[in-house]
Amino acid sequence: MSTLSEYELKIHPDQLELGHFVIRLDIPWRDTSFPLEGVRIGSAETKAWLQEHCQWVVIDLERSPGARGLQRLGPSKSKSGQSARSQRLDVIRQATIDPPTLQAARIQYLALEAGVDRLIETMQQGAAFDAGSVRAVVSEVVHSLESNLAALVWLTRIKQQDRYTAQHCINTSVLAIGLAHGLGWSREDAELAGLAGMLHDLGKALVDPEVLNKPGRLTPEEFEHVKQHTVLGFEMIREDPNVPLAVADAVLSHHERPDGKGYPAGKEAASIKPLARLVAIVDAYDAITSHRVYDPPRSHHQALGILWKERGRQFDAEMVEAFIRLMGWVSPGTLVRLSNGDMAMVLESKSGRGLRPLVRRVVAVDGRYRLAEVIDLASQGSASGNALLRISEVLPDGAEGVDARDLIASFV
C-alpha cells in the first residue's frame, strides 16, 4: 500500500469505532458501494461489512471524531494560524538538525548515560541512592528543549541489546520530556516527566538477570518476579530528597492500565496519575522499537499502531493521540526504504512536505553504513518522466545491520 501520512492510521477492521472515517482498504475501492471520497462508520452494518471483506483499513485521523485528542490537537484557526498546543506538538517535525545541534544533543545524551550508569551501579551495590546529578542533567535537557529535542529523538535510535536497560531509561526520559512539552505541561512538570522516565525501570537492576534476560516465554512465577521491578524501584528511590513524590509514584505505577488490568495494584483509570500515564506510553514505544531478548524490534509505524490499538485500555487515549501527533508518521532518524530499493534516514519532516520528507541515503562502506547525499523527496519532479522517488517502507531501528551510531558519526 502507499505510505501513510501523519494523519492516517492503518488498523484492523475490528478496531473501527463509530465516527471513524475510512479512506483506504486492502481491496479495490471499486469493489465496494462506498463513495469515492471515503466512508464514515455510522452503523454496525458498515463495520461488519468491512470486518468480513477486509484485512486492514486506513482511517483519516483528522476526520475521525473517535480520535478524540487529534481532533482537538490538530491545526486550529488563530491569529498565528496554529494553537500554542499544536505548535508544541509540531516541535520535532518542524526542527532542522545540523552538526552543531547534534553535537549539543550528544553531549546531553552522554551525560544522561553516565548518570543512569551510576544509578544502576549504586542499586546493584546496595549503596545510598542519589538522583541529584541525573536530575540536574534532565533540567538542562528541558531548558534546551526547543533546539535539541529532534536531535535527541534521533539519538534514541541507538539500540544496543547489551545496554538495553540503561538506554531504555535514557530514551524514555527524552520521549517523556517531549510528550510533556507537547501536552503543554510547565517546564517544572516536564522535568518531572524526564526524571520519571530516567528512573522508571531502574528496579530491573534488582531483578534476577537470568529471568530478565530469558529469551523464551516466562513462566507465571517468573513474570510475577519481573513485575516486582516497579515496587523495587519505588522502594529504592522514595527516600531520596531529589525524587519528588510524583516521580516515585510514576515509577511505581507506570504499568497500571486504564482498564484496571495493570500492576502492581490494578488501579482504575481515575486513580492513575497523569505522570504515570505519560511514562507508560513512551516506555512502551521505546520498548516496542528496541531489540529485546524475547522480541525483535518493530518499526516506528508498528509501534504507533500498537499504541493506537490499546488506547483507552492499556494507555491513556488522549495522550496516545498526542504522542502520535508529536512523533509524526516519520521522525528525524527514522530508517526507511525508498521506492528505488535504497535505504535512507529521515533528516527533516516539516509540515507541508506531506509524504516526502528530506532524507539522506544510507550506503555501505567497508562493511559499515554511513550517510550519503541529501535527497529532497518534496522536490522530486515528474518532468523527466521517471517514477517519483518516495518512501515505500518504514524500517525498524537496526534493520539490515544498520547501526545508528555509525550514521550519527558520519553526519557532517
Structure description:
The protein is α+β, with helices and mostly antiparallel strands. The protein folds into three domains: 8-66, no CATH class; 99-327, Hypothetical protein af1432 (Orthogonal Bundle), CATH 1.10.3210; 335-409, no CATH class. The protein has 16 helices and nine strands. A hairpin with a 2-residue loop joins strand 7 (358-365) and strand 8 (368-376). Helix 5 (132-143) crosses helix 8 (187-199), helix 8 crosses helix 13 (274-288) and helix 13 (274-288) crosses helix 14 (300-309). The longest helix has 27 residues, at 99-125. The model is unreliable at 67-82 (pLDDT under 50).
Key words describing this protein structure:
9 strands; 4-stranded antiparallel β-sheet; 3 domains; 16 helices; alpha+beta; Hypothetical protein af1432; 11% strand; 412 residues; 5-stranded antiparallel β-sheet; globular; single chain
What is this structure, in a nutshell?
The chain has 412 residues and is an alpha+beta fold. It has helices at 44-53, 68-73, 84-89, 99-125, 132-143, 145-155, 164-182, 187-199, 209-212, 220-227, 229-237, 245-253, 274-288, 300-309, 317-327, 404-409; strands at 8-11, 21-25, 39-40, 57-60, 335-338, 343-348, 358-365, 368-376, 391-394.
